[in-house]
Amino acid sequence: MNRALVRLLQKREPELREREIAYRITGVATRRLGLLADANGMDLSSLGNVHIPASQTFKSPANVREWLREAHADVLFEATSLDPHTGQPAIDHIRAALEMGAHAITANKGPIVHAYDELRSLAAAKGRRFLFESTVMDGAPIFSLFRDSLPAVHLRGFRGILNSTTNVILSSMEAGLNFEQALRRAQEVGVAETDPRHDIDGWDATVKVAALVTVLMGVPIRLEQIEREGIGKLTGEVVRAARAAEKPYKLVCHAKRTSQGVAASVAPEQLPLSDPLAWVAGTSSVVYFETDIFPGLAITETNPGVETTAYGMLADFIRAAAG
Predict the structure, then answer these.
(1) Which of 297, 299, 301, 174 is nearest to 238 (CA)?
(2) Distance between terminal CA atoms of the chain?
(3) For the segment 236-247, what is each residue's pLDDT rounded down to a tens digit?
(4) Residues sharing a CB contact under 8 Å with residue 69, sequence separation 6 or more, in sequence order
(5) What is the pLDDT of residues 175-206, one digit of tens each?
(6) pLDDT value of position 51
(7) Which helix (H) or strand (E) holds 310?
(8) CA dihedral 179, 185, 190, 192 (to 10 degrees)
(9) Which residues fall within 8 angstroms of residue 134, CB to CB, at 6 or more apart?
(10) Whole-model pTM over 0.90
């Protein structure tokens, strides 16, 4: 994803110039490269290929705070892997960036679930932005839609399909594969991780639900408050029988405002073909919002690629630069 972001920054440089936005990359941190910084700027073509020529020398700080300081960072793009139970190390990275006066843009939904109020307050106190459009449905404008385009609208609830891995697996099982074969196929095409448990057990979708509830509904919700069931118990025979009966299985996310707060769940459901969610296949996602003004407002994303996630971060970068 980071390589896609670098390529997209290069591709959209004319549009950034039109908005009077100039940038240079002054720091890179990856598992392979470690922490590298050069306040004068780093070669974008080399970074885009994740290859640093031997002729280039950079400072190698000992920790993230030193790295941010050496890079003279104005903006941090944070894209570490999700730990649904703690939100780390992304929370510490974002906290460090904000405390040191940089805007923080993340594709990791863990910090929203585990530290949203803290990080939002810290950003406000420092006069910086904490932005996270890429955390749910890649770069589709969900958070910015409600923040910027729907002022004073009250969200009553939502339902949708928010995990592409399980969607691909269920589609493959409908096509004749068993669960293990469908999982391997999802891994081969790059949709599923080597360790797919976060997707299979429903954790990824649950964290997305928690992020939407926390930010859009204004109700902090813990993961254990969300009823969660994954797709691991479904067999190919059961999935194909459901499709033949015109009631296919989908991993469906729900949230509904109640007098006690918000009731939320993630679980496989059989959906009639009259339900638009029943037709969402492959890596596509959809979410239907119910508001006091719009009874039904839908955002659908069809088979996104890695550039889609990168675009969400680019859009947040433009928002941060605009002030």
Answers:
(1) 174
(2) 25
(3) 999 999 999 999
(4) 61, 100
(5) 999 999 999 999 988 888 888 999 999 999 99
(6) 56
(7) helix 306-322
(8) 10
(9) 106, 107, 309, 310, 311, 312, 313, 316
(10) yes
Q: How many residues make up the chain in this entry?
A: 323
What is the overall mean pLDDT for the chain?
A: 93
Q: CA 61, CA 42: separation in Å to the nearest integer? A: 15
240 touches 176 (CB < 8 A): yes
pLDDT for 50 beyond 70: no
Question: How would you list the strands of the sheet with 155-161, edge to edge?
Answer: 227-228, 261-270, 249-258, 155-161, 285-291, 297-301
Largest CA distance in the chain: 63
Q: State the residue for tokens 């496989």.
A: 268
Q: Residue 228, exposed/middle/buried by CB under 10 A (0-12, 13-18, 19+)?
A: middle
Beta-carbon-side half-sphere exposure of residue 168 (alpha carbons within 13 Å) = 25
pLDDT tens per residue, range 94-130: 999 999 999 999 999 999 999 999 999 999 999 999 9
